[in-house]
Amino acid sequence: MNQTFYKDVIEGLSKHQKTLSSKYFYDDAGDKIFQEIMQMEEYYLPQCELEILNNQTEKIVNSFGYESFDIVGLGAGDGSKTKHFLKRITDLNKKIVYYPLDISADVLETNKQNITAHIPSIQVYPIAGDYFETLDKLIHDNPKIILFLGSTIGNYDKQSAELFMKKIYDMMDERDILMVSFDLKKNPHKVLAAYNDEKGITKRFNLNLLKRINRELNGNFDIEQFDHYPYYDPISGTTYSYIFSKIDQTVTIENQEISFKANEMIHTEISQKYSLNTIETFKNNIGFKSVEHFLDEGKSYAISLFKK
Ligand code: AVJ
């Protein structure tokens, strides 16, 4: 049994306001449901990111200002999205070496296969493990472009997002560039729909966390007795996702009993939406010299380059 997972779950569910961390969504079943989410009509984020990378890679690469550089992907995943971006860069005759960083060695193996199948000439050096530790140890002759794409930063609250970027800043040298994607504030109906789809795929994604606890931590959640409740606050730009208990009930996890009142909420995730203003505040607070934004047509999403 994964002791950290067990401890986090019991701690989170013992709080007055119950919580479970969204980082535990992604077991094999969760990965598959997330793939379905990315195909959903309502889930606009991947299309926006792709639109920017499809139409503006040349502008972005010109802004890098380097002929030869290393690309370091934080939380690189299977590379299925990055490969198009990397292909465009090599088509512009830039010399690049790609370092995909991820916790999972398995996913990095797939990443390398995906990338090299698409771009045979590229050098790929996957490194598994905690990416801050890896980033700190990497020694480069070339400037590096550090990618944090997929709007992953949205799962942090604003304060943690700034701290996260500051930690990267501290590991960058003067030539390095940090490239982050941010989902922007927009029509609140559109945001809410992305986390509250008609077919209930997002609901299934959330409730899979309870199933995972059943599978891995010997739990006995009756999934039918729980529901999903997403909520978007357009002022703060925060989407909150909750699971709630439909009835009074007691659940057992290993040998711990956890009681729920009817309609009691478990907070599971935030997905932060940004204004360009807030991103610029990050730049100033952290001490970056400049930030440049690349937006989609609909001004719905930003890829921002931070220079030191
Ligand atoms: C992977 C963090 C970008 O918050 O939009 C999608 C995860 N959660 N639907 C997001 C997610 C529910 C997603 N990110």
Task: Explain this structure.
By secondary structure, this protein is of the alpha/beta class. It folds into two domains: 3-43 and 189-272; 45-186 and 273-307, Rossmann fold (3-Layer(aba) Sandwich), CATH 3.40.50. Helices cover 40% and strands 26% of the residues. The protein contains ten helices and 14 strands. It has helices at residues 3-14, 28-39, 45-64, 82-91, 105-118, 131-137, 158-171, 188-194, 201-217, 276-286; strands at 18-19, 68-74, 95-102, 123-124, 127-128, 144-148, 177-183, 226-233, 238-245, 249-253, 256-260, 265-272, 290-295, 301-307. Strands 2, 3, 4, 5, 6, 7, 13 and 14 form an eight-stranded mixed sheet that branches. The longest helix has 20 residues, at 45-64. The protein is globular and about 60 Å long. Bound molecules: N,N,N-trimethyl-histidine. N,N,N-trimethyl-histidine binds at residues 37, 45, 150-152, 154-155, 195, 202, 205, 269, 271. Residues 6-307 form the Histidine-specific methyltransferase SAM-dependent domain. It holds the Pfam family Methyltransf_33. InterPro entries: EgtD_Methyltrsf_superfamily (IPR051128), MeTrfase_dom (IPR019257), MeTrfase_EgtD-like (IPR017804), SAM-dependent_MTases_sf (IPR029063). Keywords: Methyltransferase, Transferase.
